[in-house]
Design a protein that fits this description.
Helix content: 55-70%
CATH superfamily of the largest domain: Intergrase catalytic core
Number of domains: 2
Number of helices: 13
Distance between the termini: 78 Å
Structural class: mainly alpha
Strand order of the largest sheet: 1-2-3
Shape: globular
Largest sheet: 3 strands, antiparallel
CATH topology of the largest domain: hpI Integrase, Chain A
CATH class of the largest domain: Mainly Alpha
Order of helices and strands: HHHHHHHEEEHHHHHH
Radius of gyration: 22 Å
Length: 272
Protein backbone atom coordinates (compact mmCIF):
# COMPACT_ATOMS: atom_id res chain seq x y z
CA UNK A 1 0.00 0.00 0.00
CA UNK A 2 2.87 2.36 0.78
CA UNK A 3 4.40 2.12 -2.72
CA UNK A 4 0.98 2.46 -4.35
CA UNK A 5 0.26 5.49 -2.22
CA UNK A 6 3.47 7.15 -3.34
CA UNK A 7 2.57 6.45 -6.97
CA UNK A 8 -0.95 7.71 -6.29
CA UNK A 9 0.48 11.02 -5.06
CA UNK A 10 2.51 11.28 -8.25
CA UNK A 11 -0.62 10.55 -10.32
CA UNK A 12 -2.60 13.27 -8.56
CA UNK A 13 0.21 15.76 -9.07
CA UNK A 14 1.17 15.01 -12.68
CA UNK A 15 -2.11 13.78 -14.17
CA UNK A 16 -4.59 15.84 -12.19
CA UNK A 17 -2.52 18.92 -11.39
CA UNK A 18 -3.72 19.10 -7.79
CA UNK A 19 -2.11 21.21 -5.08
CA UNK A 20 0.02 19.55 -2.37
CA UNK A 21 -2.68 20.14 0.27
CA UNK A 22 -5.37 18.52 -1.89
CA UNK A 23 -3.08 15.60 -2.77
CA UNK A 24 -2.38 15.01 0.91
CA UNK A 25 -6.10 15.04 1.70
CA UNK A 26 -6.97 12.46 -0.96
CA UNK A 27 -4.02 10.25 -0.05
CA UNK A 28 -4.88 10.20 3.64
CA UNK A 29 -8.53 9.49 2.81
CA UNK A 30 -7.54 6.43 0.77
CA UNK A 31 -5.23 5.21 3.53
CA UNK A 32 -8.05 5.51 6.09
CA UNK A 33 -10.56 3.72 3.87
CA UNK A 34 -8.08 0.96 3.01
CA UNK A 35 -7.79 0.15 6.74
CA UNK A 36 -11.55 -0.51 6.81
CA UNK A 37 -12.13 -2.39 3.55
CA UNK A 38 -10.35 -4.06 0.70
CA UNK A 39 -10.51 -1.58 -2.13
CA UNK A 40 -12.35 -3.53 -4.80
CA UNK A 41 -15.48 -2.41 -6.67
CA UNK A 42 -18.04 -4.31 -4.59
CA UNK A 43 -16.60 -3.30 -1.22
CA UNK A 44 -16.26 0.29 -2.37
CA UNK A 45 -19.89 0.48 -3.50
CA UNK A 46 -21.02 -0.88 -0.13
CA UNK A 47 -18.78 1.62 1.63
CA UNK A 48 -20.24 4.54 -0.34
CA UNK A 49 -23.78 3.27 0.32
CA UNK A 50 -23.10 3.28 4.08
CA UNK A 51 -21.35 6.66 3.82
CA UNK A 52 -24.37 8.24 2.11
CA UNK A 53 -26.65 6.93 4.85
CA UNK A 54 -24.46 8.35 7.61
CA UNK A 55 -24.70 11.72 9.36
CA UNK A 56 -21.38 12.98 8.04
CA UNK A 57 -21.41 16.41 6.38
CA UNK A 58 -21.96 16.80 2.65
CA UNK A 59 -18.37 17.98 2.20
CA UNK A 60 -16.94 14.92 3.98
CA UNK A 61 -19.01 12.54 1.86
CA UNK A 62 -18.14 14.32 -1.39
CA UNK A 63 -14.42 14.39 -0.57
CA UNK A 64 -14.35 10.69 0.35
CA UNK A 65 -16.13 9.75 -2.88
CA UNK A 66 -13.84 11.94 -4.99
CA UNK A 67 -10.80 10.29 -3.40
CA UNK A 68 -12.18 6.85 -4.32
CA UNK A 69 -12.86 7.93 -7.89
CA UNK A 70 -9.31 9.20 -8.24
CA UNK A 71 -7.96 5.98 -6.75
CA UNK A 72 -9.76 3.74 -9.21
CA UNK A 73 -8.79 6.02 -12.09
CA UNK A 74 -5.18 5.68 -10.91
CA UNK A 75 -5.63 1.87 -11.09
CA UNK A 76 -6.95 2.18 -14.65
CA UNK A 77 -10.56 1.45 -13.73
CA UNK A 78 -13.52 3.68 -14.47
CA UNK A 79 -15.87 4.25 -11.54
CA UNK A 80 -18.22 7.12 -10.76
CA UNK A 81 -20.58 7.77 -7.88
CA UNK A 82 -23.46 10.19 -8.12
CA UNK A 83 -23.40 13.01 -5.59
CA UNK A 84 -26.15 13.51 -3.08
CA UNK A 85 -28.06 16.76 -3.33
CA UNK A 86 -26.08 19.49 -1.63
CA UNK A 87 -28.01 21.13 1.21
CA UNK A 88 -28.45 24.87 1.02
CA UNK A 89 -25.89 26.24 3.48
CA UNK A 90 -26.56 28.95 5.99
CA UNK A 91 -24.08 30.93 8.04
CA UNK A 92 -25.53 30.51 11.49
CA UNK A 93 -23.45 32.87 13.59
CA UNK A 94 -21.16 35.87 13.42
CA UNK A 95 -19.78 38.36 15.92
CA UNK A 96 -21.04 41.86 16.53
CA UNK A 97 -18.73 44.84 16.11
CA UNK A 98 -18.71 45.18 19.90
CA UNK A 99 -17.60 41.56 20.30
CA UNK A 100 -14.71 42.03 17.87
CA UNK A 101 -13.71 45.15 19.83
CA UNK A 102 -13.83 43.07 23.00
CA UNK A 103 -11.50 40.46 21.48
CA UNK A 104 -9.03 43.18 20.53
CA UNK A 105 -9.26 44.72 24.01
CA UNK A 106 -8.41 41.33 25.58
CA UNK A 107 -5.18 40.98 23.60
CA UNK A 108 -2.18 41.20 25.94
CA UNK A 109 0.47 42.30 23.47
CA UNK A 110 0.85 44.00 20.10
CA UNK A 111 1.47 40.68 18.34
CA UNK A 112 -1.88 39.23 19.41
CA UNK A 113 -3.70 42.45 18.62
CA UNK A 114 -2.18 42.79 15.14
CA UNK A 115 -3.03 39.19 14.23
CA UNK A 116 -6.67 39.59 15.25
CA UNK A 117 -7.01 43.04 13.68
CA UNK A 118 -5.59 41.97 10.32
CA UNK A 119 -7.84 38.92 10.27
CA UNK A 120 -10.91 40.97 11.24
CA UNK A 121 -10.36 43.97 8.96
CA UNK A 122 -9.20 42.12 5.83
CA UNK A 123 -11.33 38.95 5.99
CA UNK A 124 -8.45 36.80 4.78
CA UNK A 125 -8.46 33.05 5.38
CA UNK A 126 -6.32 31.43 8.13
CA UNK A 127 -3.88 29.86 5.67
CA UNK A 128 -3.51 33.19 3.89
CA UNK A 129 -2.74 34.97 7.16
CA UNK A 130 0.09 32.64 8.09
CA UNK A 131 1.65 32.98 4.61
CA UNK A 132 1.82 36.80 4.60
CA UNK A 133 5.27 38.25 4.08
CA UNK A 134 6.18 41.83 4.83
CA UNK A 135 6.70 42.51 1.14
CA UNK A 136 3.06 41.63 0.47
CA UNK A 137 1.85 44.73 2.34
CA UNK A 138 1.39 48.13 0.70
CA UNK A 139 1.26 50.49 3.68
CA UNK A 140 0.69 53.56 1.51
CA UNK A 141 -2.58 52.22 0.08
CA UNK A 142 -3.71 49.99 2.96
CA UNK A 143 -3.53 46.97 0.65
CA UNK A 144 -2.49 43.38 1.18
CA UNK A 145 -1.46 41.14 -1.70
CA UNK A 146 -2.64 37.57 -1.12
CA UNK A 147 -0.28 35.14 -2.84
CA UNK A 148 -1.59 31.69 -3.75
CA UNK A 149 -4.82 31.95 -1.78
CA UNK A 150 -7.68 29.50 -2.14
CA UNK A 151 -7.44 27.73 -5.49
CA UNK A 152 -3.83 28.97 -5.74
CA UNK A 153 -5.15 32.37 -6.86
CA UNK A 154 -3.50 35.69 -6.10
CA UNK A 155 -5.54 38.72 -5.10
CA UNK A 156 -5.58 42.07 -3.32
CA UNK A 157 -7.57 42.97 -0.20
CA UNK A 158 -7.81 46.14 1.85
CA UNK A 159 -7.44 46.90 5.55
CA UNK A 160 -8.33 49.94 7.62
CA UNK A 161 -6.14 52.86 8.66
CA UNK A 162 -6.37 51.71 12.29
CA UNK A 163 -5.11 48.28 11.25
CA UNK A 164 -2.28 49.96 9.36
CA UNK A 165 -1.32 51.79 12.55
CA UNK A 166 -1.23 48.52 14.49
CA UNK A 167 0.94 46.91 11.81
CA UNK A 168 3.42 49.78 12.07
CA UNK A 169 3.54 49.45 15.84
CA UNK A 170 3.97 45.67 15.57
CA UNK A 171 6.92 46.05 13.18
CA UNK A 172 8.67 48.38 15.60
CA UNK A 173 8.72 45.50 18.10
CA UNK A 174 9.21 42.73 15.52
CA UNK A 175 11.21 44.15 12.59
CA UNK A 176 11.17 42.12 9.37
CA UNK A 177 12.69 42.20 5.92
CA UNK A 178 10.38 41.98 2.87
CA UNK A 179 10.99 38.24 2.39
CA UNK A 180 10.22 37.25 5.97
CA UNK A 181 6.86 35.98 7.16
CA UNK A 182 4.93 38.66 9.01
CA UNK A 183 3.99 36.35 11.88
CA UNK A 184 6.22 33.69 13.40
CA UNK A 185 6.07 31.41 16.44
CA UNK A 186 7.05 32.89 19.81
CA UNK A 187 10.58 31.53 19.52
CA UNK A 188 10.87 33.01 16.04
CA UNK A 189 11.99 29.69 14.57
CA UNK A 190 8.80 28.52 12.89
CA UNK A 191 6.10 29.98 10.69
CA UNK A 192 2.92 30.91 12.56
CA UNK A 193 0.49 27.99 12.21
CA UNK A 194 -3.25 27.71 11.71
CA UNK A 195 -3.40 25.66 14.91
CA UNK A 196 -1.75 28.50 16.84
CA UNK A 197 -4.25 30.94 15.34
CA UNK A 198 -7.24 28.83 16.38
CA UNK A 199 -5.79 28.48 19.87
CA UNK A 200 -5.22 32.24 20.16
CA UNK A 201 -8.83 33.07 19.27
CA UNK A 202 -10.12 30.44 21.68
CA UNK A 203 -8.02 31.93 24.50
CA UNK A 204 -9.16 35.47 23.65
CA UNK A 205 -12.80 34.39 23.71
CA UNK A 206 -12.28 32.91 27.18
CA UNK A 207 -10.61 36.10 28.40
CA UNK A 208 -13.52 38.09 27.03
CA UNK A 209 -16.06 35.82 28.74
CA UNK A 210 -17.74 35.02 25.45
CA UNK A 211 -19.95 31.94 25.14
CA UNK A 212 -19.80 31.87 21.36
CA UNK A 213 -17.32 29.58 19.66
CA UNK A 214 -14.74 31.91 18.12
CA UNK A 215 -12.59 30.60 15.26
CA UNK A 216 -10.67 32.26 12.39
CA UNK A 217 -13.37 31.94 9.72
CA UNK A 218 -15.89 33.56 12.05
CA UNK A 219 -14.04 36.87 11.66
CA UNK A 220 -14.26 36.51 7.87
CA UNK A 221 -18.01 35.92 8.12
CA UNK A 222 -18.29 38.83 10.54
CA UNK A 223 -16.59 41.26 8.16
CA UNK A 224 -19.04 40.37 5.40
CA UNK A 225 -22.14 40.77 7.56
CA UNK A 226 -20.93 44.03 9.14
CA UNK A 227 -20.25 45.46 5.67
CA UNK A 228 -23.74 44.43 4.56
CA UNK A 229 -25.32 46.04 7.60
CA UNK A 230 -23.34 49.21 6.96
CA UNK A 231 -24.78 49.44 3.45
CA UNK A 232 -21.99 48.00 1.30
CA UNK A 233 -22.89 46.75 -2.16
CA UNK A 234 -22.51 43.03 -2.74
CA UNK A 235 -19.74 43.39 -5.33
CA UNK A 236 -17.48 45.25 -2.89
CA UNK A 237 -17.86 42.38 -0.43
CA UNK A 238 -17.28 39.81 -3.19
CA UNK A 239 -14.02 41.51 -4.17
CA UNK A 240 -12.84 41.87 -0.56
CA UNK A 241 -13.49 38.19 0.22
CA UNK A 242 -12.26 37.17 -3.28
CA UNK A 243 -15.19 34.87 -3.98
CA UNK A 244 -15.14 33.27 -7.42
CA UNK A 245 -18.94 33.29 -7.63
CA UNK A 246 -21.38 36.02 -6.62
CA UNK A 247 -23.68 33.25 -5.31
CA UNK A 248 -21.17 32.59 -2.53
CA UNK A 249 -21.36 36.22 -1.43
CA UNK A 250 -25.16 36.27 -1.65
CA UNK A 251 -25.16 33.49 0.94
CA UNK A 252 -24.56 36.15 3.60
CA UNK A 253 -27.73 37.98 2.61
CA UNK A 254 -29.66 34.70 2.55
CA UNK A 255 -28.42 33.93 6.06
CA UNK A 256 -28.85 37.30 7.74
CA UNK A 257 -30.97 39.47 5.48
CA UNK A 258 -30.25 42.97 4.22
CA UNK A 259 -31.42 46.25 5.69
CA UNK A 260 -32.38 48.81 2.99
CA UNK A 261 -32.44 51.47 5.71
CA UNK A 262 -28.64 51.40 5.96
CA UNK A 263 -28.32 52.10 2.25
CA UNK A 264 -30.93 54.88 2.45
CA UNK A 265 -29.14 56.58 5.34
CA UNK A 266 -25.89 56.47 3.37
CA UNK A 267 -27.34 58.50 0.47
CA UNK A 268 -30.19 60.53 1.99
CA UNK A 269 -29.79 64.30 1.49
CA UNK A 270 -29.04 66.59 4.43
CA UNK A 271 -31.52 69.51 4.25
CA UNK A 272 -31.14 70.91 7.72
Amino acid sequence: MKTNTQEFEKFLCIRKGLSPVTISGHTKAIERIAKKIELNRENTENFVFSLYQSNFSYSHKANQVKSLEYWFEFLGQSIYFARQRKPKPLIKQTLTEAEVTKLLFCCRNIREKTIVALLAYSGIRPKELKNIKLGDIDFGNNELRVVEGKGLKDGVVYFSASCNKLLMEYLQSFPKNPEQYLFMSFDGQRQFSQYALRKLLKVLALRAGMTKRVYPYLLRHTLATVMINRGSDIFTIKNQLRHSLIETTLLYISSFGYSPKNKYEQFVPSYC
